[in-house]
Structure formats: structure tokens, C-alpha cells
Design brief:
4 helices; 7 strands; seven-stranded mixed beta sheet; globular; Rossmann fold; alpha/beta
């Protein structure tokens, strides 16, 4: 319900798509004009392809795609350099949506990676995605960034 309408019907890249389960839900929400998926794990990419998605193996710590809209659902905290990733997103995409778990509120012991605290996330986004809108809900940050106001 918080998705700004200008984020719909774009050429979307799902960065950290996993097996495509969340991608299917994101496709319903964003209704993209086109959709590409990227993940570091070849097995998960195969499973995503079996679900019908155009997916490729890519290590976002080493390489980075570019396009119109980047979506990262719970994948930022798995990267070695979260701040550097935000810089690459800003440089390579016109629009960015990120949904990230926060370390407060009892992150599941099953959660891999290193989720940031609310304060760390606010500071990192302010520095690397200036002007981004952040909504904190359900122990997660929902970040909306548009590089050019005319979008």
C-alpha cells in the first residue's frame, strides 16, 4: 500500500532474487514492463528460471548490472559492503526500492548476513541515497529512491 505509483510498470531488476519465490510476489506488486533477476547462487538461479524468470548468476560484490528500477528484498545485508552497494545502485539505476530487515526487535537466529540497526540504516541511506524516503515497519526498512525528480 506504500508503493508510489511511479515505481510500477518499469524495467525492473531483482537483485538477490534467490529461488524466485519473492520475485513472483514482487512481479504482482510492481507490474514491471520487463524483469531480470540476479543472484550469486547458481542453484537458486536455476530454480528461479524454472519458475519462468530470466535469471542469471552474478556476484553483486564483484559485478553490478544497470537499468531503470532496482529492487532488493532482504539481500543488501548479505553483501560485504552495503554502503558501496548503495553507491552502485545510485550510479547504475534511475529508481531503487530496498526492503531490509533491521537488527532491532530480535532478528531471527536463522537470518544470515548482518542486518543494520535503524540508526545505521538511516545514516547510510542519508549519506549514499540522498533524498530517499524510508518507511520503518515490522522491523524492516522500506527505502524508495528516485535519482531524478521527474520520475
Amino acid at each position: 500500500k506504500h508503493l508510489p505509483p511511479e515505481f510500477r510498470h518499469r524495467k525492473m531488476d531483482d537483485l538477490g532474487c534467490g529461488d524466485g519465490k519473492v520475485t513472483a510476489r514482487l512481479k504482482e506488486i510492481f507490474q514491471p514492463e520487463s524483469l531480470r533477476c540476479f543472484d550469486v547462487n547458481p542453484g537458486l538461479v536455476r530454480r528461479s528460471r524454472k519458475k519462468g524468470f530470466c535469471a542469471e548468476v552474478m556476484n553483486l560484490n564483484e559485478d553490478f548490472p544497470s537499468g531503470e528500477l532496482a529492487v532488493m528484498w532482504g539481500s543488501l545485508h548479505h553483501l560485504e559492503d552495503m554502503a558501496g552497494c548503495l553507491d552502485r545502485l545510485k550510479r547504475n539505476y534511475d529508481m531503487v526500492f530496498i526492503r531490509e530487515p533491521l537488527s532491532e526487535g530480535g532478528v531471527s537466529w536463522l537470518e544470515l548476513g548482518h542486518p543494520a540497526s535503524k540508526e545505521e540504516m538511516e545514516n547510510m541511506v542519508a549519506e549514499h541515497l540522498p533524498g530517499a524516503r524510508i518507511i520503518f515497519q515490522d522491523n524492516a526498512a522500506h527505502i524508495f529512491y528516485v535519482s531524478q525528480p521527474e520520475y
